[in-house]
Write a structure and sequence with these properties.
With 261 residues, the chain is α/β, with parallel strands linked by helices. The protein has a single domain, classed as Rossmann fold, CATH 3.40.50. The protein has helices spanning 5-12, 14-27, 73-85, 101-107, 126-130, 135-153, 176-196, 225-240, and strands spanning 39-42, 51-57, 89-95, 119-123, 157-161, 201-204. It has a six-stranded mixed β-sheet, with helices on both faces. α4 runs parallel beside α6 (135-153). The chain is globular. One of its GO terms (molecular function) is hydrolase activity. Keywords: Hydrolase. This is SGNH/GDSL hydrolase family protein. Residues 55-229 form the SGNH hydrolase-type esterase domain.
Length: 261
C-alpha cells in the first residue's frame, strides 16, 4: 500500500495538481545546460594512474544551474575524489536536461563509449518523479540501465545518487510539492532496494538541505555551484571506502549478476 500512496493522494486532487503543474512550468525560469567541455582531469598534480569515471544523468549531469561543466557534478565529484585519494580522476559527463531513465536508454547510452571505466555515477529521478513514473516501471528502467552500463563499461563500482527530496523545494507550490515529495521518496526507496542486491552498486542519499537558498540556482530548482560542490562531497565520502588510494591497483567488486526486473 505504501508504494502506491503518492498515486492515491494525487488521484484525490488530480485536477488541482494538473493546474498547479502547468502554471509552475509556465512561470519557471528555464536555465540552459552548462557550456564548455563535458570532460576533464581532476588532480593532475598527483603522480598516479588516473581513476576513470563516467557521469550519466539528467539536467544535473548536464550542469543546469551553473555556467560551465567545471562547476557541475562531474568535475566537482572528480575533484573531491582526487583530493581524498591523492590520485587523478579522469571524468566525462553524459547528461540531458529533462531526461528520464527511459530517455537516457534511448538518447544517452548509445553515446557512451564501449570501454572499461573504474566508476560510474548515475543521477536520475526528478524527471521520473514529475512524469509520475510508476515504481514498477521505474525499477524496470533502472535495472535495464544498470545492465547496459555494466555491459558497455564493465565498471568496478556504480554509484546511484538518491532522488532529490522534492518536498524540500520551496519553488514548488503546495500541495504539488507534498505529492512530488511523496513520489520522489517512493522512487528513492526503490533505488536503495536495487542497490542493496549488489555489492557493486552503492546508493547515496541526497542528504542536503534544499531549503538552503545558497545551494540552489536562481530558478530555485537546480543546484548552484555551492550545491554541486556540497553534493560532490557527499558522493566522495560515500565512495571513499570502496576506492583504492594512490599507487594501489583498482580492485573492487565485480558488477555481474545485477538484478533485472
Amino acid at each position: 500500500m505504501r508504494r502506491f500512496l503518492p498515486e492515491l493522494v494525487a488521484l484525490t486532487i488530480l485536477p488541482y495538481l494538473i493546474a498547479q503543474g502547468r502554471r509552475t512550468r509556465r512561470l519557471a525560469l528555464r536555465l540552459p545546460e552548462a557550456s564548455g567541455p563535458a570532460e576533464g582531469l581532476a588532480g593532475a598534480g598527483h603522480d598516479a594512474e588516473p581513476l576513470s569515471m563516467l557521469c550519466i544523468g539528467e539536467s544535473t549531469v548536464a550542469g543546469v544551474g551553473v555556467s560551465s561543466y567545471e562547476q557541475a557534478i562531474g568535475s566537482r565529484f572528480a575533484s573531491a575524489l582526487a583530493e581524498r585519494l591523492k590520485r587523478p580522476v579522469r571524468w566525462r559527463a553524459f547528461g540531458k536536461n529533462g531526461a528520464t531513465v527511459a530517455d537516457a536508454l534511448e538518447q544517452l547510452l548509445p553515446c557512451v563509449p564501449e570501454r572499461h571505466v573504474d566508476l560510474v555515477l548515475l543521477a536520475f529521478g526528478v524527471n521520473d518523479t514529475t512524469s509520475f513514473r510508476s515504481v514498477s516501471r521505474w525499477e524496470r528502467d533502472v535495472s535495464v540501465l544498470l545492465d547496459v552500463v555494466t555491459r558497455r563499461c564493465t565498471p568496478h563500482q556504480i554509484l546511484m545518487s538518491g532522488v532529490p527530496p522534492m518536498a524540500a523545494l520551496p519553488v514548488l507550490p503546495q500541495p504539488l510539492r507534498y505529492v512530488m515529495g511523496l513520489k520522489a521518496r517512493s522512487l528513492d526507496v526503490s533505488l536503495h532496494r536495487i542497490a542493496a542486491a549488489s555489492d557493486a552498486i552503492l546508493h547515496v542519499p541526497l542528504a542536503l538541505d534544499l531549503r538552503n537558498a545558497a545551494l540552489l540556482a536562481c530558478d530555485g530548482y537546480h543546484p548552484s555551484a555551492a550545491g554541486y560542490s556540497a553534493w560532490a562531497e557527499l558522493l566522495a565520502e560515500a565512495a571513499l571506502a570502496r576506492l583504492p588510494p594512490s599507487g594501489s591497483p583498482t580492485r573492487l567488486p565485480k558488477t555481474g549478476g545485477m538484478p533485472v526486473r
